[in-house]
């Protein structure tokens, strides 16, 4: 449960097409970054506010947050509630002031308003990750880690395609907010497909070409099966 006072993020919901406002999300989405607290969570909030079915994850060994120096990051285990991270980082008035200033407390607040704790992709059961039709990774090494993980899992009984997409994004709140909206744009395009497996490769390629006209973003796409 989220702690009292940790309010839900007010991230703008994006502009879904009119028909999407009246129907539930056709596809299931996963968003993945390193620590499941900035990039993947920003996209989780934006997409969820827009009515899409989405879960978020991290692929790192631990949840790592900026500390008071580059040599002293704040490190938590996956599964540590966001509310507990907040309490730990706000233990003294000095800590509260520092971690409010660098934005980390706000990230913890947002996380606590969405779900209990960060989840590690590699630790999720195959039945949980296999339900996703599209998985969006926000860095190329994370994209590679997701693909490697999917390729090493035992096939499930429902053996189906999972579309893994990379939207390469710098790990800071400003870039995360921008690319969260980009991710939402892509998801609305994929929502309109009649046959995702057949149409997605060309749609993602076209999407990258359109994005490259106004921002330099690397978009990668691979189909995995689980």
What does this protein structure show overall?
- The structure is a single chain.
- The protein is of the alpha/beta class and 226 residues long.
- It is 40% helix and 16% strand.
- It contains eight helices and seven strands; from the N terminus they run E-H-E-E-E-H-H-H-H-E-H-E-H-H-E.
- The strands form two sheets. A five-stranded mixed sheet has the order 2-1-5-6-7, with helices on both faces. Strands 3-4 form a two-stranded antiparallel sheet.
- The two termini are 32 Å apart.
- About 2% of the residues have low confidence.
Major sheet: size, sense and barrel closure? 5 strands, mixed
Runs in which pLDDT lies below 50 for 5 or more consecutive residues are: 7-11
Number of helices: 8
Mean pLDDT: 91
- Give the strand order of the largest sheet, numbering strands 1, 2, ... along the chain: 2-1-5-6-7
- Helix content range of the residues, please? 40-55%
Give, in order, the helices and strands: EHEEEHHHHEHEHHE
Principal-axis shape: globular
Q: What share of residues are in beta strands?
A: 15-25%
Radius of gyration: 17 Å
* Spatial separation of the terminal alpha carbons: 32 Å
* Total strand segments: 7
Structural class: alpha/beta
């Amino acid at each position: 449960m989220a702690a009292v006072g940790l309010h839900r993020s007010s991230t703008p919901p994006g502009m879904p097409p009119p028909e999407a406002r009246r129907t539930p999300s056709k596809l299931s989405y996963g968003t993945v970054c390193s620590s499941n607290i900035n990039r993947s969570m920003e996209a989780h909030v934006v997409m969820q506010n827009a009515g899409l079915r989405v879960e978020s994850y991290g692929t790192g060994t631990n949840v790592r947050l900026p500390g008071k120096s580059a040599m002293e990051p704040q490190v938590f285990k996956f599964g540590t509630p966001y509310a507990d991270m907040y309490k730990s980082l706000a233990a003294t008035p000095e800590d509260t002031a520092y971690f409010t200033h660098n934005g980390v407390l706000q990230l913890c607040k947002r996380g606590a308003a969405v779900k209990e704790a960060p989840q590690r992709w590699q630790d999720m059961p195959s039945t949980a990750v296999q339900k996703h039709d599209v998985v969006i990774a926000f860095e190329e090494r994370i994209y590679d880690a997701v693909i490697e993980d999917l390729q090493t899992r035992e096939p499930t009984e429902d053996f189906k395609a999972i579309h893994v997409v990379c939207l390469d994004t710098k790990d800071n709140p400003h870039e995360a907010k921008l690319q969260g909206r980009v991710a939402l744009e892509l998801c609305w395009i994929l929502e309109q497909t009649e046959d995702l497996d057949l149409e997605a490769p060309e749609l993602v390629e076209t999407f990258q070409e359109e994005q490259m006209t106004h921002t330099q973003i690397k978009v990668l796409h691979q189909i995995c099966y689980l």
